[in-house]
Please model this.
Amino acid sequence: MDDKECDDMILKAAGWLSKAMEQLNCSAPIEVTSTVCKKPLKDDLVILMSEAFHLVRFQNEKLKQLKTTLSATKNKLIESQQSVISLQEQVIDCKDKQLQAVQTTVKSTVEDSVKEQFKSYSDAVQENVMVCKPDSDSLPVGKLKDVVREVAHEEDRLSNVIIFGVPEREPANLAQRVEEVFNEMKVRPSVREISFAGKQSAGTSSRPIKVKLSSPSIVKAILGQAKLLKNSDKLKSVFVKPDLSIEERTKRRQLVQDLKQRRISEPDKRHYIRGGAVHSEDTKSKK
Model:
């Protein structure tokens, strides 16, 4: 029961009481008795009339109390909701402080660990230098930097692929062209960087494109899908290869030359490169 319904019931009951008291010529509810009710009414209705009067009056008082209680309950509910909101804000603030404390602790721990590992590595390098080169005062700093740079470059190269045969267009949009190739291969890797892997030579319409990916495992997955380009109508002349070092490229060129010579000298056999070597199979033995 809402406030409006309570108000309507109270008004109707109050109006009935006022009308009944006026007919009985009573100025206060306490004056309404069976004796007073006998004057204008029949004897068989006197008791019922008196009981009805007091029942209605009692109901009216209870409704007033109910409305007061309902209002107090609403106020308490609003206070409780405000308390809950305040507690939630305190919990969020506490969590933020805990998260900041954890981040600070993790950052400090990682920095200490890196410093300790670097110190251990430096000590190990110094120890090896003293053992391997007792006649030398110290390892040249430039040489050590070159070794570290070479290792870092090797790790970085393992996350690259080289795309050959993509025609160059104006204006150059490498990202769009690389996306077209990957879509044809049905892969959507996270690309970190795209650039040309060399200068364009005279008589050529394209330059190799170097694509830097997030990890060597992604490179392996892409190379496994590269065979799909052979069945492509518009990209069948495009192929994807790993980013080889200078030594690996030299060895690869030699293998390709050996493969060509093998095909000329033994045209009846099937020749292919696998595992860093040229292999040949007798096509007749497979029939």
